[in-house]
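quick one
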Amino acid sequence: MIILFIGAQASGKGTQAKIIAGKKGFAHISTGDLLRQATGELKEKTDVYISKGKLVPDDLILELLKERMKRPDCKNGIILDGFPRTLEQAADLEKVTKIDQIFEIKISDETAKKRLTGRWNCKKCGIAYNLVTAPKPKKGKLCDNCNIPLYQREDDKNEKAIQKRLNIYHEHSEPVLKKYKDKVIKINGEQTIEKTTKDILEKLE
Ligand code: AMP
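structure w/ adenosine monophosphate:
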């Protein structure tokens, strides 16, 4: 079972993918997280793209993704978050697996920009907080679960990178939604986290 979560930056797709994967016993694979966890040569090669808001070359992403998909937690199903982002990546994915369902988490560019400026993350548990919208951490900039300082992503600090990522989403990722329109379920990502989760669970097959 392969489910794709597609949405603009800060649509909440990562948050929802984490919640739904936890509830259903699926693996949550975020290519952005895989890249941020990279070390050594791979990190050196990929950081230059990420900090500018550009897409990392397909061969590097595919290698990471294929390795991750071999792990045993993938046997019940996988939620892919942030892949495929282009028609080429969708074609690559189809070579290795069938796509069952696609959730499009929809927000406006205005909401995306507002949320991105307030996004702070926990390096340990991966939760994304938001100082401007929600969920806000209970104590300053500390993770509620891990009690460690939150950090802001380099690409969220950089206004040019934010605009670049949104442009890439419209230009390259929206055509993926068009290609698979029969499998796409549209979810309103402007709602609360809880309501968005409820809507996804109702539509999940
Ligand atoms: P995300 O955490 O999904 O917002 O991804 C952060 C950054 O990682 C993106 O802006 C890209 O630079 C890179 N990235 C993540 N997933 C992909 C992908 N499927 N293809 C190319 N680059 C990616």
